[in-house]
């Protein structure tokens, strides 16, 4: 599988410099200091994204605004259960349609979407369309609310039809559901039946266990149909509604690419009145109709005993209750409040609720983002945001996932990457061993996790990614959770099981990774996933190095471990971890601080130190955010100068930053995470005008893009790019940036 580090081929640095030197918009005016009279540019966002994701931790689906329909529905929120699987998309499309006074159907995917949004702070997608004097407000969500005994994948689709004309009308409402349940995970050999007892359509594949149930939520004038779709077919729900204005109540038994549909025929809709309609789609892969129908019908009953609107109200009430304990700083603007709430909702949507080993993991992004995988690093920033926003139950579940996850093992039961790369004494290709013997198997993945809670690291020609920063970040997260909740019992349960893991398989091992020659953590792939071949072999990036970011996180992690040891009454461990944190800080100051253009900054790595064309890296800002560097110091000011001079985006109209100087297109786009973490540092430094400029910029962009925070912005157009919506590196960092700013403003 592909690495987050490289999405495109590297380009020549000189070529990129030429590109970046040509401004396609206004040249940036430097951000003003808090005490300057210079005006601050008013950067404005714009819409560049058109997909909205709904997830309930069990399933995920996508609504395309540009196409006016649902285009994706999958059984898991993560991309891979294990190394031998990929989570498939079972939906080709699904949408509503209508007919007036017995006329032919008009499908809503052919009617322009006038507005689309999330019901704020929820996973509920709403779109609004108008045609023929009618208004269609459609709602789509994967429900957190209601009954779901068997953890079925459920998608609720609702539409409120309002007659805005002055004339009473008979309105038929249609739905078209085209799922791909074939033996090829496409369209081959699909089967359908109608179940009269449950009044639902069943689509299935008896060979691979794929099964969908479609349940109409309004029985008034109900009709149904299934048929073969595709070129040359005439008898199917879409064709019969389009050509004849009605469905036939016919079911096709088997074929390739079967479509299912419902009709509510000729319901009287008086002028100024509204009616609700809807469908629930249930999906599983074990062929168990009894369980799936039980979950579908239990949820449908809420609508059938009232109106389909009751399902929407039930879901909205669930979210209202969930947000009721949320912590939000005082003073936020209305826009910031909306994006803050939507950001916490994204984190909730990004956390798996599947029982078993998957439970609690938080993904780096939701679909359609490419990074719908549980990275250790991204997950810890999500945990920090959950803690900051008061969602302690979710934070605790995420921590438990990390504690209980299983590392990749070799045949002897040892951690695979530890034995073959960290401890291996053969320092030549292809393993390039560090030769560092660790006293225990490490606890936290060197990269990320499959959906089943087992470790994974991606590979390329330069070997795997082996990252130590997650080890320090996890210690930080546990410490922040205990500080916020006082829940030390979490660590004491089961004969101190978690505490022993935390100390012996994380904090102690970080100390063992300190290189005696220079006091820094051994070289690794670090935050930007540079892969494992050493720098002295490649003489360039991507390659493993002694990165500042890994050392900064190790400092923070060991400082956190010392605080936890104090809370746990472990005085000797407190001193051990505190001393180790201090020694790493000293090593950073002595080995990685460099003078550049008359000021001091922290170089990206020991290997890049002294090369001003490569040594600047936005991730070093965490030294300020973790209070390793005094925010009021000249070093902190020098670091900001370095970012402004070397990492600012000089094309388009943005106050934002690229992540480093490596020259790759991926690196050189604007990074929301870097913008927001620099905003946090500027807040701590008292440079609140500059911090607010960055926050306002991301707020403005999000407000034009469904309150979602992206991974990247294109450096020419500032269009959304990369993975959207992003979790810890997007929504999570927005929550942290907002808290940093408003807490400093008190």
TrEMBL record:
GO terms for molecular function: hydrolase activity. Residues 1-34 form the signal peptide. It comes from Sporolactobacillus kofuensis. It holds the Pfam family Glyco_hydro_15. The keyword Ribosomal protein does not apply. Residues 348-615 form the GH15-like domain. Residues 231-246 have a biased composition (Polar residues). Residues 227-246 are annotated as: Disordered. Keywords: Hydrolase, Signal. This is Glycoside hydrolase family 15 protein. InterPro entries: 6-hairpin_glycosidase_sf (IPR008928), 6hp_glycosidase-like_sf (IPR012341), GH15-like (IPR011613). SUPFAM superfamilies: Six-hairpin glycosidases (SSF48208).
